[in-house]
Design a protein that fits this description.
mainly beta, binds zinc ion, 5-stranded antiparallel sheet, globular, OB fold (Dihydrolipoamide Acetyltransferase, E2P), 2 domains, 1 helix
Length: about 130
């Protein structure tokens, strides 16, 4: 991803910002010019919860240039019902299963040695069980 494109998309990637249609209330991500359900253009920014479950997953390696490999990629179903593809982090491959609760975190996605900048974006990690107060 080039730097200009990265800056243009950073709110979407940093905060998982999608859109809500004010006509039919559908939520979508990433942003489009029309609603995917009713095709209205009355869309407003809508921040997604960033929580969901693993819908399917795969281990990728060798990775494309600039990506650390191997890495885990998953189709995550958000609480809002949307599916999106993202890398998984902070988890061992054998611990990933369909239905695993996950949450969004911001992590380094790519490293561009030549230009010397880092691209950060969203990944998902398992939601850890809350510790009970003793
Ligand atoms: Zn709509």
């Amino acid at each position: 991803m080039d730097l200009a494109r990265y800056h243009r998309l950073r709110s979407a990637y940093y905060r998982l910002e999608g859109q809500r249609c004010t006509s039919c209330q559908a939520v979508q991500f990433p942003a489009r010019t029309t609603c995917r359900i009713c095709r209205a253009r009355t869309l407003e920014p809508h921040r997604l919860s960033g929580r969901g479950t693993v819908y399917s997953h795969a281990e990728v390696g060798p990775a494309p240039r600039g990506f650390a490999s191997p890495y885990l990629v998953a189709l995550v179903q958000l609480e809002e019902g949307l599916l999106l593809t993202a890398q998984l982090t902070d988890v061992d491959p054998e611990d990933v299963m369909i239905g695993l609760p996950v949450e969004m975190v911001t992590r380094r996605i790519q490293e561009h040695g030549a230009q010397g900048y880092l691209v950060y974006g969203y990944k998902f990690r398992p939601i850890l069980p809350r510790r009970k107060a003793s």
